[in-house]
Design a protein that fits this description.
Length: about 240
């Protein structure tokens, strides 16, 4: 069975002060086996991030189902999972990398990565060692390891965000423009980690505007242009 199945998914947003409702996405279908990587492409405003945030349950979908094969719960529909179940999955199984860093204040970058590892059951010593490896891999200056990330540049925050998510080796990893503000060398580091995660069995769904970055990395490409055409409901996934 698939690791992730999205069936006839749709999401609407209500603009309360105008009393209007807008359909963001509809008729979204795709399925991924363990270890596969789906890249989502499309113009700005086409609903790419809405799909990722609905899988992560930042948004609650309005139509369809999102079936995830959980190590703890078995096949679970994320659209109607309880808050307790969602919190567990975010902590232990599903990772999310966005362009923005949202972390607890007065927590250093080193402590943030260590905390991610401790949540997965690592010992304090192992968490310390693996956190330093991750921070080194993503070339975060050691001088910043014991500083608060609210003072970091956009690229530094993004590299820390990626380190926090990938160090946990999640079963499912969602990537929302993870290379948006990175230089070429940092993009290569991200690609190396993605390749290692895929090889270890992590299933990935990612949004990229950098088509060259996706080349040879994604197993399938989901084109939002086709998904939003009401005459096309099937066959929107293309082999990469």
């Amino acid at each position: 069975m698939a690791m992730l199945q999205v069936k006839d998914f749709g999401k609407r947003f209500t603009i309360h002060h105008l009393g209007k409702t807008r359909q963001a996405v509809e008729h979204i279908h795709f399925s991924l086996e363990q270890g596969e990587f789906l890249g989502i492409v499309g113009k700005s405003g086409s609903g790419k991030s809405t799909i990722l945030k609905s899988i992560y349950r930042t948004y609650r979908p309005d139509e369809g189902s999102i079936i995830y094969n959980s190590a703890r719960y078995g096949f679970i529909d994320l659209t109607n999972a309880t808050e307790r179940e969602i919190l567990y999955l975010r902590k232990h199984e599903i990772g999310y990398v966005s362009q923005f860093l949202n972390v607890m204040p007065r927590t250093t970058s080193r402590e943030l990565v260590e905390k991610a590892l401790l949540e997965m059951g690592a010992t304090e010593q192992a968490a310390k060692i693996e956190a330093e490896k991750a921070l080194t891999h993503f070339e975060l200056d050691p001088k910043l390891w014991d500083h608060y990330p609210n003072t970091f540049s956009g690229g530094e925050k993004l590299r820390l965000n990626i380190a926090m998510a990938t160090v946990k080796k999640p079963r499912l990893l969602l990537l929302d423009e993870p290379t948006a503000s990175l230089d070429q060398q940092s993009k290569i580091k991200v690609r190396e980690i993605i390749e290692k995660l895929k090889a270890s069995g992590t299933t990935l769904v990612g949004i990229f505007h950098d088509i060259e970055f996706m080349d040879g990395l994604c197993d399938h490409v989901f084109d939002m242009q086709f998904s939003q055409d009401k005459s096309v409901k099937e066959g929107v996934i293309h082999e990469s």
